[in-house]
Design a protein that fits this description.
The chain contains 6 helices and 18 strands. With 262 residues, it is an alpha+beta fold. The protein has 2 domains: 129 residues, Diaminopimelate Epimerase, Chain A, domain 1, CATH 3.10.310.10; 114 residues, Diaminopimelate Epimerase, Chain A, domain 1, CATH 3.10.310. It has an 18-stranded mixed β-sheet that branches. β4 and β5 form a beta hairpin. It is globular. 44% of the residues are buried.
């Protein structure tokens, strides 16, 4: 069996930046084990699979070792493929997912994700998290299946050198770290570590902003933000909160188009 595959750099306006994701269009679902093996073979932080439905598409996301409930950059990558290669003619795509119905709007310059807010609550850090992350954060929160750690300054975030061998044993999808931005052009910065799901550091994590935007909105009183994920590849994100939704906008560039044989 042959399947089309695309690799897309998401949350960047140039190749070799942002976060690469694989996208595999399907007519019907493959066995879950096969989709997981394809994601493992791709060896990217996420591989998205999607099938058509009556109202749009159903999307699923796999890291190299697990299926996850929500992924922003691979959804952005999938929308890019639909708009730019698969002749999707409307301005809005609806995706059914494990996190409910997700909407992606083509604004002309950017693709805007419409995701549900993920509430955060103060939490105490397990010993493994404290041992693995290094410097003690100012604040610690739990949000769905992630931890959110707040630091004082951008250089605290950039200088983190986590012990992934320890962090992979923390019972969480990921650990999000954030701080105010050093530049007046940005509001906040962040990084995302997910060794428990096979991704030591994710370059740009759209789903993280469903937790970060509510936090920064409450802290600052603002509704719209310019943020940067300060990984090695880096990626800039425009995001805002609207009622119980988070709007996350960015660009994407198609790097590879091909066929896989399974």
């Amino acid at each position: 069996m042959q399947l089309p595959i695309y690799q897309v750099d998401a949350f960047t306006d140039k190749l070799f930046g942002g976060n690469p994701a694989a996208v595999v269009p399907l007519n019907e679902w493959l066995p879950e084990e096969l989709m997981q093996n394809i994601a493992l073979e791709n060896n990217l932080s996420e591989t998205a699979f999607f099938v058509p439905t009556d109202n749009g598409y159903h999307i699923r996301w796999f890291t190299p070792v697990a299926e996850v409930a929500l992924c922003g950059h691979a959804t952005l990558a999938t929308a890019c493929v639909l708009f730019k290669r698969l002749n999707y003619s409307a301005d809005v795509i609806l995706f059914e997912s494990k996190s409910g119905v997700l909407k992606v709007t083509n604004t002309g310059d950017l693709l805007e994700l419409d995701f549900p807010v993920q509430p955060i609550a103060p939490a105490s850090a397990p010993d493994l998290l404290v041992d693995g992350i290094g410097p003690i954060p100012m604040e610690i929160y739990r949000a769905a299946d992630d931890y959110v750690l707040v630091y004082a300054a951008q250089n605290d975030i950039e200088n983190l050198q986590p012990d992934f061998g320890i962090l992979k044993n923390v019972k969480a999808r990921g650990i999000i770290v954030t701080a105010p931005a050093a530049s007046e052009e940005l509001d906040f910065v962040c990084r995302f570590f997910g060794p428990a799901v096979g991704v030591n550091e994710d370059p740009v994590t759209g789903s993280a902003f469903t937790k970060l935007v509510p936090y920064w909105a409450k802290r600052t009183g603002k509704l719209a933000f310019k943020a940067e994920q300060v990984s090695a590849r880096r990626g800039k994100v425009l995001c805002k909160i609207h009622e119980n939704r988070v709007l996350i906008a960015g660009s994407a560039r198609i790097y590879l188009e091909g066929t896989i044989t399974v």
